[in-house]
Write a structure and sequence with these properties.
This protein has helices at about 25-35, 60-65, 85-100, 115-130, and strands at about 5-10, 15-25, 45-55, 75-80, 105-110. The protein has 4 helices and 5 strands, in the order ββαβαβαβα. Helix 2 (about 60-65) crosses helix 3.
Amino acid sequence: MPFNSVIEAKRRLVVTTGTGILTGEEGLACCRQLKERRDFDPTFNQLLDLTDATRFDATPSQLQVIAAQPLFSHASRRAIVAKNPTIFGLARMFESYRSLSGFGEQVMVFSELDPAVQWIDSAASDENLSA
């Protein structure tokens, strides 16, 4: 499967990777499968690593449908990493659709993995300080 999700419960993180040619249908399937997992917690953060994706065949309406999925909580952070310029642009479109959806979690798009991981880890640090 082009999308694979690993749940790191101790880090309160879902790491989803997308490789090769991806489609909007596969993106929706990934959301459904993640939601059905017993070890999934919607308050976790997500790192969506698309650095090995070569193409994402999704229409703007498919991106809107994916963005409308109430998967993560308002307190979650979702970092998307995309090096391919076209996929990066689609990720930014997803970010915009998601912000308009009103679900409230933070979504940021990065072109490099390290800053994305730092941003996700800073959320965990912030949670530990407020606890």
